[in-house]
Amino acid sequence: xxxxxxxxxxxxxxxxxxxxxxxxxxxxxxxxxxxxxxxxxxxxxxxxxxxxxxxxxxxxxxxxxxxxxxxxxxxxxxxxxxxxxxxxxxxxxxxx
Length: 96
Hints:
Elements: H1 15-20, E1 29-34, E2 37-42, H2 49-61, E3 63-65, E4 68-70, H3 75-90
Antiparallel strand pairs: 1-2, 3-4
């Protein structure tokens, strides 16, 4: 099916496809790009329990990144380390 894109970059999803996906006005959709094609899917609000549990564990127990253990308590010191690293990287650059 050939469709035109309007000046604002919009296209109309044909009614037949909206009906198949049970898309209603103001529903959220997920748009992705793969293999030179746009993919439009109805947004699924279900919970990804594996991701949810992983997030809870990271919040509760912290996580390790490049031999540095990150927790809620030490995130401030990580921020300080990042500032020191950035300052060290740019200290030899001439200012114009």
